[in-house]
Structure formats: structure tokens, C-alpha cells
Design a protein that fits this description.
By secondary structure, the chain is an alpha+beta fold. The chain is built from six helices and 14 strands. The strands form three sheets. Strands 4, 5, 6, 7, 8, 11, 12, 13 and 14 form a nine-stranded mixed beta sheet that branches. A three-stranded antiparallel beta sheet has the order 1-3-2.
């Protein structure tokens, strides 16, 4: 029998007036793990009260106010197989290597409960449903939604642990093709800087003191007018590591609207996972996998090659 998840209720007594502070801004400080837009929706939907009234997001707090914040329970997501196209690069009894298109989320999460890579793989590999009750069966590493390229998925628990151990020991080699703004110099190097949660923008990562160690190797593939195409090999696998490191180094990723810069030739970030090298559990030997740049990124390079950027 499943026990229903109850809503969490928090109360706050404002004892000292904070001149001009808005209700939504105050709540972002009390709930740093939640985005300001999400908290604003809670206010608008009546989950936040000041006394017995329902305030607006712009309400200015004052001494004596009593806030009651109700955090609704998370939406329960169930995994459902969906017959979607899957570009299989390699497959055996233990695992499958897929060329993930940009725009596809790897696994279900709040806001992305369906049409994910996992939903597609459940239709392609029904045995994934027998692995565990998580929303990430077989997933051992991830790619951002708008990053295209190679991702490996285990078909059974033994293989999953085998691959997890390879990633932990850093014996898996990953290669990305990344287009950045500026002329990168030197042509080969390593960015070694700790990455952690942004101190104020909690949905973003940043190079921060006290963050987790992170290293990214890079080398120049080709120079274009105002841009450089890089081959990037992350040693560690921190969230958004490549995009954060390159931005911090002064070479923001083209098309990346979070850490990088806009491009007239791109509708998403130019990051493509083109290379993977790992040891196959079935034969105990290393194997390399590659995939070509997708059409949208090839088109961007074509326009840049015309020297009209």
C-alpha cells in the first residue's frame, strides 16, 4: 500500500521590517533550492498567505506579518514506453549506445514527464523496465537537453554497475565538438577550476571557491571569423561543466542562452558529444564510438565558412 505524499507547510514570522522587500524576493532567500519563477507561481496559485489574505507577488513585507507557505507534493511520474525513433549506434545484450538528438531530455523529471530518451528506450529495450523503480533505469551519464550526441545505457544492473565504476575511475573517454566565441589561444590547454552551484542563481552552475574539482582539456579544431571550433575532453563530469568552464575562460559557447552567447545561425547550444571510448562488459575490451555532427550544427559551420559572420 502506498502512503500518499503530503504537502509541506512552513510558517514565517516577520519581526523586523525590511524596507521595500518583496514577498517573492524574501521567499527566494528562505527557499534557495526553488526558483523565483516557481515561488511566484505558488503565490499566484494561492499557496502563500499573509495572515488570512492571499497576497500578490509584489507585496511588500512588514513587521508583524505571518507567512504561511504550502509546498504542494511532487507530481508522481510513471514510466511509459513510447515508440519514438532511436538512433542506435551500437547494441549488444548488455548495453545500447544511442545518438541523442538535441531537444530530447534524457529521463523524466518534473516538467518533462514524457517524450524522453528513457521513454523511447523502454519501447526499444523492454528489459529496462525490470531494472529498478527509478526514473533513470540504465542511465549512467547524462547529456543536457539541448546537447546532441552519444549516450550509453545499460540493459541490466550488473552492466550498469560495471559502467558506473568505469565513469568513477575516469577510464571512460568522452569527446565533444564545441563552437565558442573568440579566437582560442593557446591552441591546446586545460581548464582546471572548481564547479559548484551559483551562489544566487540556484539553477545555474559556476566556477566557485569550494566547488567540486573539475578539469576540461581542449584543443582547437578550426578557426572561423570570430569563432573557434574546439574538441573538448572533460576529465570530470560536473553539471554543465564544459559550458561553465569555457564561459569562465572567456570563450562562451555559441547558441548557449544560459552561459554563452546568441548566434544567428543556431537555435541551440553548439555542443555535440561525438566520441566515446569505454570497456565493453561483454568482451572486456575497449571500443570507440563516434557520430557525425547533426545537420543544424553542420549548417552553422557552413555559414561561418562563408566568412559572413
Amino acid at each position: 500500500m502506498n502512503t500518499p505524499i503530503e504537502a509541506e507547510v512552513r510558517t514565517f514570522n516577520i519581526t523586523v521590517s525590511i524596507p521595500g522587500i518583496r514577498l517573492d524576493k524574501y521567499l527566494t532567500k528562505e527557499f534557495p533550492e526553488l526558483s523565483r519563477s516557481y515561488l511566484q507561481r505558488l503565490i499566484e496559485q494561492g499557496y502563500v498567505k499573509v495572515g488570512n489574505t492571499l497576497p500578490k507577488t509584489s507585496y511588500k513585507l512588514k513587521a508583524g506579518d505571518k507567512l504561511t507557505v504550502t509546498l504542494p507534493p511532487p507530481v508522481v511520474i510513471s514510466l511509459v514506453p513510447e515508440p519514438m525513433p532511436v538512433a542506435v549506434v551500437y547494441e549488444d545484450r548488455d548495453l545500447v549506445v544511442v545518438d541523442k538528438p538535441a531537444g530530447v531530455t534524457v529521463h523524466p523529471a518534473p516538467g518533462h514527464s514524457s517524450h524522453t530518451l528513457v521513454n523511447a528506450l523502454l519501447a526499444h529495450c523492454p528489459e529496462l523496465a525490470e531494472m529498478d523503480n527509478s526514473l533513470r533505469p540504465g542511465i549512467v551519464h547524462r547529456l543536457d537537453k539541448d546537447t546532441s550526441g552519444l549516450i550509453i545505457v545499460a540493459k541490466n544492473r550488473v552492466t550498469q554497475q560495471h559502467l558506473v565504476n568505469q565513469f568513477k575511475s575516469r577510464s571512460v573517454k568522452k569527446g565533444y565538438l564545441v563552437l565558442v566565441r573568440g579566437k582560442v589561444t593557446p591552441e591546446r590547454g586545460t581548464i582546471d577550476a572548481p564547479v559548484g552551484r551559483h551562489p544566487t542563481r540556484r539553477k545555474r552552475m559556476a566556477v566557485v571557491v569550494g566547488g567540486r574539482e573539475a578539469q576540461t582539456h581542449y584543443q582547437v579544431r578550426q578557426y572561423f571569423k570570430g569563432c573557434t571550433l574546439l574538441e573538448v575532453n572533460p576529465v570530470t563530469g560536473r553539471t554543465h561543466q564544459i559550458r561553465v568552464h569555457l564561459s569562465a575562460a572567456g570563450y562562451p559557447v555559441m547558441g548557449d542562452l544560459v552561459y554563452g552567447v546568441k548566434s544567428p545561425y543556431l537555435s541551440r547550444q553548439f555542443v555535440h558529444a561525438y566520441y566515446l571510448r569505454l570497456r565493453l562488459p561483454s568482451i572486456g575490451k575497449y571500443k570507440e564510438f563516434t557520430c557525425e555532427l547533426p545537420w543544424d550544427l553542420r549548417q552553422a559551420l557552413y555559414f561561418l565558412s562563408l566568412d559572413i559572420a
